[in-house]
């Protein structure tokens, strides 16, 4: 009788969380989860945009294998009939349930969130979701707009609620059904916020007085950033409040005071999300399930908050690719939990003071493509085999590897291993790396640079992130043959993390990078 799984995935959440060292944010419930979890502080998505990242982490295949770089194809038809993580749990006797945004809706999940392959019952979508982009934000003139910055009075909203509130209610309803059914379950809950529009209950603004909000530490476009690497944040420009600012394309900066407002609302949306997570985990306690349920918490990718003069995702910068990742495994990340114990009492971000440190923390560089094999191992299922070089015809395999062996490594030992490495070339080659990629239609920013359709892709930026550096090559890409040509390099980036943690000083042109090239292209 194995463990249940509660898999929480958040849309566009970078690790601005207390448990990741952020001093401004109020995230007591996620921090409390971290205090009972193994937390990975260097986890990266494989492509910083919703559909490709989600299909990649749910199939344990990289975007070059799913062949999904945009929103417009279903991998089972277009690439290969790959099994998904929920499908694997379902085939192993679990009831699999989806609430909210887990798969990206639309053609990329066959207009059905991959039901019936992945889920035991049809996925739940909150009814209020259809109003997300309506004009529901009250302007200073009292009129309604479709703004980016959108604190609201929930009672005035269509249906009197918001999508994430509905998803939490449905997830709690399902937990209470499952506790009586005595069947193992895999419940995936996908939250929308802090995805734009930044629409959340207005009281959360009180947590973040504007005078406490700073600009990004590096709000300018770096001098040596290749133009192909820049994303022009078109989705933000299309919101009513940003449009009114008349910002020049593609580099024109947003006014400082508006930058602060975006940052303030992103933080407020994170605290609103934290409340939803708190209610959900408290319900897990109430149902008596905290002692036999694994909880995974992560995001599909991050989001730029003005760093490098950029907003949104759509790039290879850490702010776009890095995600929170934590695993609560009762009896493994905590001492055994007795039935009915309170592990996750609800914490109110408006009154809760003081943070809590993660139970265990690993600085090892890991990838979301490793989530599926890791979760399989934690649940006691057979870990899917590693994919062969070409795996289009293989239904069940993983391009990631289980990271369970990182769980019981104490930080001290981790460092020793590195020093004990005498052969520097071998150390360099064996050092864990995360691979991300991003497509572009051209060498300079265009209206479709953020989200080029497959047929428009001409360049692919392949990125390798280790603990010490990020190395990125922008190379010629043929969307018909899906071939990247590493002999036709359009631009490169190299950032050394120790001296340049924010990735502002690209030293690609004044460094020899043969060994980087070899490691990236192997």
UniProtKB/TrEMBL annotation:
**Chief subcellular site?**
other
Question: Which keywords fit this entry according to its UniProt record?
Answer: Calcium, Disulfide bond, Glycoprotein, Hydrolase, Lysosome, Metal-binding, Signal, Zymogen
For this protein, the record's InterPro entries field holds: Alkaline_phosphatase_core_sf, IDS, Sulfatase_CS, Sulfatase_N
What catalytic activity does the UniProt entry give for this protein? Answer: Hydrolysis of the 2-sulfate groups of the L-iduronate 2-sulfate units of dermatan sulfate, heparan sulfate and heparin
Its EC number(s): 3.1.6.13
Pfam families found in the cross-reference section: Sulfatase (PF00884)
Query: What Gene Ontology terms describe what this protein does at the molecular function level?
Result: iduronate-2-sulfatase activity; metal ion binding
Query: Localized where?
Result: Lysosome
The record's Gene Ontology biological-process terms are: carbohydrate derivative catabolic process
- State its cofactor: Ca(2+)
What broad class of enzyme is this?
A: hydrolase
Domain of life of the source: Eukaryota
Boundaries of every Sulfatase N-terminal domain copy: 4-380
Q: Name one GO cellular component term.
A: lysosomal lumen
Subunit structure, briefly? Monomer. The 58-kDa mature form is composed of two chains resulting from proteolitic processing, the 42-kDa chain and the 14-kDa chain that remain stably associated and form the 58-kDa intermediate form which is enzymatically active.
Against PANTHER family, the record matches this protein to: IDURONATE 2-SULFATASE (PTHR45953)
- Free-text function comment from the UniProt entry: Lysosomal enzyme involved in the degradation pathway of dermatan sulfate and heparan sulfate.
Q: Which family does it belong to?
A: Belongs to the sulfatase family.
Q: What is this protein called?
A: Iduronate 2-sulfatase
Q: Please give the organism.
A: Brachypodius melanocephalos (black-headed bulbul)
Q: Which gene encodes it?
A: Ids
